[in-house]
């Protein structure tokens, strides 16, 4: 996949042992990222996934705003994962304000989060990843060559958006999710309508699984620490909340102590912070990390699909993040149906927002489509935000993507791939992580590695 | 569009007897009186021995007896004739209805029903019509629930004891947005198809002010160039009114205008008589009694369709009031009259004249300073009928729709015309225009109320500008000018 | 009743035969660009699911980093989301302007500066250092501004995110050559048309009365106050806000303006 802007430095002496790749603004990812790789005599002399997205300063402009503004400001970090940011934000702020929300609120929030996981995964799989496997530049040519695929993709994406719309008003920057509860109470007939469409979408999902089963996922494995939330006490596949675990350290750590498990550093070539854990220089978060840590809690139908696609925990092939996303969509559909059933059985009634009982410091987390997301706020006695820290999934993955590429490039060179093929494979690797670069470009409270 | 009022209808024997004894109070006086005199005369005649002829006193007594006998016989024959005529005219089946004594301003109490009867009838109505009624809506901010007209599935969702609905029922008849026609370009030529909504609908629970407002809308959209979209919807809308015994909330001035009572504009009007009046005086109806207050409602039929609607209900829960029962209605209306205080410090009839002289008042500028020009007052007004029309293309762009949507004269662009001139650029001019339309011009143009005193604009105003206060200030200005 | 009209009505697209009988000129070449922002407005285009294929049938997308790999700089209509907040952004937006026949700002960031402008009210050194510590100098930044501060903008579609239906309306207007205008009335109008309870009436400082409509009052419809993401309607409404909010809620004007700064709706130099 060569872009017009890809500056491919012509080198007459270019051999398989000398490669220079520079891709400005990788396409079909959210945000601006540049990729540059230099190989000389088979040795990588330079390898950078540079985040050139303009710095955003969200942590900074949260300061001085009232406590209740936090989810509405932070959801604007990213258009794709705004429900995820909202969820982590209300968790953190409710922890800082001593708020315990009602079971109805939790169910509605879980439902809208399912909607976003579905929307984001389906968007990524169909619009951003599938074109690579089918050898086209985007979803647009597919409208001509694979109209059924495109129509199915649009139908499924719309369903996911509508779940977010019914609960929160819209998917991009949801309205109704507030600190202390929700301000909109969906009508039973709207939920019932969603349930019927979700049930009908099982057939679409089956066809989608068939499509993906036919695609050749590149072989590449690297020993990696996978970190995610886990519902230690209950039996839920952790999206909404849980404790921090990883494949290399399965002992659970509460979210309030997230700094014990996640260490952020600033690197010069990236407006996003890089992250490490106490035991690994790089680690991965996202669908594959969740799958690796929480396989047992997956819905049986999702487990079936995983085994049909040959995905087994613990999988260390980052390209299989797409497969894990697909498995998760099956799980999310079933969970959404169950949540709707619960809401309809219990009956939805308007509830006032729960008000703060204290103002202090609090952290919260959620598993958003691209991995675990941490928000932490400090609130002064007047309810004004005085401190904020956001740890973004893509920021956590960046160092790991670079590490993957360092391991992958020599393999590809050894396999005799040319520069275009290598570029394509590297871009696919970046896209497999589904990076959300807008999200990643805000940072704070760095532990300096000097 | 209005059906003719219901005429007197034949009655069953039981009801006729009830009507005789309860519908004509003189019977209650005359019959016992006649019997009393007769008994007295017979006692005297049998207990006193006749001695020597008839004394003048005895002659008088005999005359009294004869008179009493004649009166008794005469009255008996008179009522017997009525009974026989009643039997001869007796109708077939169903609940039949009589127009009882006419009271205030064309209002009648045609029947009394139980709430059970009403719910059963609403359910029946819902089989053939979309039901719309006041529903209480709570929010997440901990405020008291407010009522809104919403589509309901079950009759018990309708809150007939609502205070006021935030919006009137206007939107049912004149939707905030509607597609008037669809166009399509075929072979280079445009074809249009009208989009007429003729789905049968019923609004259950409309207060008198809103019934008056609907009458204004009816005239606006019927007379002159008639509006098929509105009129079709209106013809297919069944309206059940519900009277308010007292002001629904502070600050309404329907009592000043007289729009707190409605004699038309509905198919059936319900009266919450027993919320107000002690029903123990009412006899003959099992659900009416001191311990069952509030469980029954009075009703008046506005149309033949309304009457037929009630005829199909369970007979045991339906009762035609007679005689003294009517006093309950009168008492209700008396109490209602007292419950509505005077809010406008002028006779409503004088308001057009007062407004006519207000054109140069300083009030307009002083008040409109606060105005956001947000149009909330227009949009909640049950008589505001201005609209805007826009064409919207589809994709592909060869087809499209012509859409109508509510407009409002308080919006800055309302009086903008081609070329860029705005006839009412200053918000003071827009405010004056609105108040004059509401208080005078609509009445002059249509013969119906431009303002029904519902107070919605005052409540909705984001700048707390009050039409009532404006009218009172102008009335005061007029008084000063008059001195 | 006009008997020339059919009285039935079925909403929908004309059938295939009708479409093919109409000839349209060449499809406009369309690009979607992003500056400093969350790219939610670009994403909103992809969320037009029901109309997306019709949109793609009517226009040709030639440059859209978030969705396609192809890139061309021969552009009829360019849509830009995000604010200008770095020297790079300034160069980019000038490049977009040169390349595009018609330039459209989409979203609060591109039209007003958006949420990025919150940092404008803090000293630059403070916010940079707060986020990036003593590495602050590594990251270029400047006061966040709408793109109209740097280049001529032909149309603006404000909102956070932009209203995708409004995007569709603009595309259709451009296709048929009809004038496109934003609503010149407040959010209250659409809120009332939707039959919402008034949050302002309940004592919540909803910015609906001073905010440009076009969003179909989506926030109040979902129980939340209007936050003025589509910008201030008029100086007249802003003045009224100053008077009313102080009187009714005892909120000083400075606090009102702070609320209005959420999306950059209030900028001293833009309000006359």
Helix content of chain A: 40-55%
Give the neighbour order of strands across the main sheet of chain A.
1-2-3
Indicate how many domains the architecture of chain B comprises. 3
Within CATH, the superfamily of chain A carries the name Cytochrome-c3 Hydrogenase, chain B
Oligomer: heterotrimer
Strand content of chain A: 15-25%
Ends apart, CA distance between termini of chain A: 38 Å
**H/I helix tally of chain A:** 13
CATH class of chain A: Mainly Alpha
- Strands of chain B, total number: 12
Average of per-residue pLDDT values of chain A: 87
* β-sheet strand percentage of chain B: 15-25%
| Average pLDDT rating of chain B | 84
Instruction: Give the CA-CA distance, first to last residue of chain B.
Output: 47 Å
Radius of gyration of chain A: 21 Å
Runs of chain A with pLDDT <50, length 5+? 1-15, 441-450
Number of strands of chain A: 13
Query: Percent of residues of chain B in helical segments?
Result: 25-40%
Verbal overview:
The complex is a heterotrimer of chains A (450), B (483) and C (272). With 450 residues, chain A is of the alpha+beta class. In chain A, 44% of the residues lie in helices and 15% in strands. Chain A has one domain (58-399, 434-440): Orthogonal Bundle (Cytochrome-c3 Hydrogenase, chain B), CATH 1.10.645. Chain A has helices at 58-62, 70-74, 82-97, 103-134, 139-145, 147-168, 188-213, 287-294, 300-308, 321-346, 393-414, 419-432, 437-440; strands at residues 19-23, 33-40, 43-51, 177-178, 181-182, 225-230, 243-246, 263-265, 274-276, 283-284, 361-368, 371-379, 385-391. In chain A, helix 4 (103-134) runs antiparallel to helix 10 (321-346), helix 5 (139-145) packs across helix 6 (147-168) and helix 11 runs antiparallel to helix 12 (419-432). The model of chain B is unreliable at 1-19, 21-25 and 89-103 (pLDDT under 50). Chain B contains 16 helices and twelve strands. Helices cover 40% and strands 15% of the residues of chain B. Chain B has three domains: 13-88; 104-339; 348-482, no CATH class. Chain C is of the alpha/beta class. Chain C has a five-stranded parallel sheet with strand order 2-1-3-4-5, sandwiched between helices. In chain C, helix 4 (87-99) links the parallel strand 3 and strand 4. Chain C is globular. At the A-C interface, helix 1, helix 4, helix 5 and helix 6 of A face helix 2, helix 3, helix 6 and helix 9 of C.
């Amino acid at each position: 996949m060569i872009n017009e802007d890809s500056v491919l430095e012509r080198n007459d002496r270019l051999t398989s042992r000398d490669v220079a790749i520079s891709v400005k603004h990788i396409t079909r990812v959210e945000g601006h990222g540049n990729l540059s790789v230099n190989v000389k005599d088979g040795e990588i002399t330079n390898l950078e996934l540079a985040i050139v997205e303009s710095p955003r300063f969200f942590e900074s402009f949260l300061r001085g705003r009232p406590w209740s503004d936090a989810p509405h400001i932070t959801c604007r970090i990213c258009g794709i994962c705004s429900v995820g940011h909202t969820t982590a934000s209300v968790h953190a702020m409710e922890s800082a304000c001593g708020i315990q929300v009602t079971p109805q609120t939790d169910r509605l929030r879980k439902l809208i989060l399912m909607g976003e996981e579905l929307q984001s995964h389906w968007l990524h799989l169909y619009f951003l990843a599938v074109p690579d496997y089918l050898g086209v530049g985007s979803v647009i040519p597919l409208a001509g060559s694979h109209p059924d695929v495109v129509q199915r993709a649009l139908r499924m994406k719309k369903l996911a958006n509508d779940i977010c719309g019914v609960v929160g008003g819209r998917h991009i920057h949801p309205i109704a999710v507030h600190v202390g509860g929700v301000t909109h109470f969906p009508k039973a007939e709207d939920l019932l309508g969603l349930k019927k469409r979700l049930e009908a979408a099982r057939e679409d999902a089956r066809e989608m699984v068939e499509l993906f089963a036919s695609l050749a996922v590149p072989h590449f494995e690297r020993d990696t620490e996978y970190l995610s939330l886990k519902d230690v006490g209950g039996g839920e596949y952790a999206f909404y909340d849980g404790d921090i675990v990883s494949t290399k350290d399965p002992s659970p750590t509460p979210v309030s102590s997230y700094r014990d498990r996640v260490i952020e550093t600033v690197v010069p070539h990236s407006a996003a912070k890089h992250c490490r854990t106490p035991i690994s220089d790089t680690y991965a978060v996202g669908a594959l990390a969740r799958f690796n840590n929480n396989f047992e809690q997956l819905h049986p139908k999702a487990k079936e699909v995983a085994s049909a696609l040959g995905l087994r925990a613990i999988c260390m092939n980052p390209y299989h993040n797409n497969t894990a996303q697909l498995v998760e969509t099956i799980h999310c559909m079933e969970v959404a149906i169950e949540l709707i059933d619960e809401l309809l059985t219990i009956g939805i009634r308007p509830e006032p927002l729960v008000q703060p009982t204290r103002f202090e410091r609090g952290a919260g987390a959620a598993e958003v489509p691209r991995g675990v997301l941490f928000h932490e706020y400090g609130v002064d006695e007047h309810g004004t935000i005085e401190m904020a820290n956001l740890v973004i999934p893509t920021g956590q993955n960046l160092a790991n993507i670079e590490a993957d590429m360092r391991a992958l490039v020599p393999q590809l060179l050894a396999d005799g791939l040319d520069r275009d093929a290598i570029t394509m494979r590297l871009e696919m690797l970046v896209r497999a992580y589904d990076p959300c670069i807008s999200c990643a470009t805000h940072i704070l409270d760095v532990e300096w590695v000097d | 569009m209005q059906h003719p009022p219901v005429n007197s209808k034949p009655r069953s024997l039981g009801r006729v007897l009830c009507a005789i004894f309860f519908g004509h109070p003189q019977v209650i006086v005359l019959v016992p009186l006649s019997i009393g005199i007769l008994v007295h005369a017979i006692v005297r005649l049998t207990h006193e021995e006749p001695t020597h002829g008839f004394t003048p006193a005895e002659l008088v007594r005999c005359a009294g007896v004869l008179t009493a006998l004649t009166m008794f016989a005469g009255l008996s024959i008179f009522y017997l004739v009525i009974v026989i005529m009643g039997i001869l005219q007796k109708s077939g089946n169903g609940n039949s209805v009589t127009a009882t004594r006419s009271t205030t301003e064309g209002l009648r109490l045609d029947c009394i029903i139980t709430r059970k009867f009403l719910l059963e009838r609403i359910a029946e109505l819902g089989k053939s019509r979309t039901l719309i009624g006041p529903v209480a809506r709570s929010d997440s901010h901990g405020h008291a629930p407010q009522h809104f007209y919403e589509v309901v599935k079950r009759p018990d969702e309708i809150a007939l004891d609502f205070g006021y609905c935030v919006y009137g029922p206007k939107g049912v008849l004149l939707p905030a947005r509607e597609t008037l026609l669809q166009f399509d370009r075929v072979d280079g030529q445009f074809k249009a198809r009208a989009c007429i909504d003729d789905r049968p609908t019923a609004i259950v629970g409309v207060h008198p002010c809103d019934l008056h407002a609907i009458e204004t809308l009816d005239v606006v959209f019927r007379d002159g160039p008639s509006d098929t979209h509105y009129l079709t919807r209106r013809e297919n809308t069944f309206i059940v009114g519900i009277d308010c015994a007292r002001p629904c909330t502070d600050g309404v001035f329907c009592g000043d205008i007289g729009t707190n009572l409605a004699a038309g504009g509905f198919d059936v009007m319900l009266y919450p008589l027993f919320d107000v009046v002690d029903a123990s005086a009412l006899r003959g109806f099992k659900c009416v009694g001191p311990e069952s207050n509030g469980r029954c409602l009075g009703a008046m039929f506005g149309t033949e369709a309304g009457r037929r609607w009630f005829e199909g209900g369970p007979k045991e829960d339906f009762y035609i009031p007679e005689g003294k029962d009517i006093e309950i209605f009168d008492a209700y209306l008396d109490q209602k009259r007292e419950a509505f205080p005077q809010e406008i410090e002028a006779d409503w009839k004088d308001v057009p004249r007062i407004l006519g002289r207000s054109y140069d008042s300083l009030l307009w500028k002083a008040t409109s300073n606060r105005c956001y020009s947000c149009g909330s007052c227009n949009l909640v007004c049950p008589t505001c009928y201005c609209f805007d029309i826009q064409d919207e293309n589809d994709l592909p762009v060869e087809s499209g729709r012509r859409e109508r949507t509510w407009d409002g004269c308080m919006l800055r662009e309302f009086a903008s015309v081609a070329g860029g001139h705005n006839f009412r650029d200053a918000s003071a001019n827009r405010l004056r225009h609105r108040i004059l339309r509401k208080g005078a011009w609509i009445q002059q143009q249509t013969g119906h109320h431009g303002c029904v005193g519902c107070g919605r604009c005052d409540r909705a105003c984001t700048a707390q500008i009050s039409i009532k206060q404006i009218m009172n200030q102008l009335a005061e200005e007029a008084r000063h000018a008059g001195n | 009743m006009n008997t020339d009209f059919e009285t039935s009505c079925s909403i929908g697209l004309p059938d295939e035969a009708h479409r093919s009988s109409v000839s349209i000129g060449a499809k406009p070449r369309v690009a979607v660009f992003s500056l400093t922002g969350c790219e939610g407005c670009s994403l909103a285009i992809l969320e037009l699911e029901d109309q997306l294929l019709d949109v793609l049938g009517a226009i040709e997308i030639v440059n859209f980093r978030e969705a396609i790999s192809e890139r061309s700089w021969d552009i009829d209509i360019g849509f830009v989301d995000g604010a200008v907040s770095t020297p790079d952004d300034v160069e980019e937006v000038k490049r977009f302007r040169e390349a595009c026949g018609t330039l459209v700002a989409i979203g609060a960031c591109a039209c007003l500066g958006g949420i990025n402008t919150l940092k404008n009210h803090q000293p630059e050194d403070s916010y940079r250092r707060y986020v990036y510590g003593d590495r602050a100098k590594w990251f270029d930044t400047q006061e966040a501004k709408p793109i109209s501060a740097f280049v001529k903008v032909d149309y603006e579609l404000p909102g956070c995110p932009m209203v995708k239906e409004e995007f569709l309306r603009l595309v259709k207007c451009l296709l048929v050559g009809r004038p496109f205008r934003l609503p010149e009335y407040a959010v209250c109008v659409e809120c009332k048309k939707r039959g919402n309870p008034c949050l302002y009436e309940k004592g919540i400082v909803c910015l609906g009365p001073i905010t440009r409509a076009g969003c179909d009052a989506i926030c109040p419809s979902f129980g939340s106050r209007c936050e003025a993401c589509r910008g201030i309607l008029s100086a007249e409404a802003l003045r009224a806000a100053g008077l009313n909010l102080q009187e009714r809620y005892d909120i000083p004007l400075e606090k009102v303006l702070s609320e209005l700064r959420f999306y950059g709706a209030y900028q001293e130099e833009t309000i006359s």
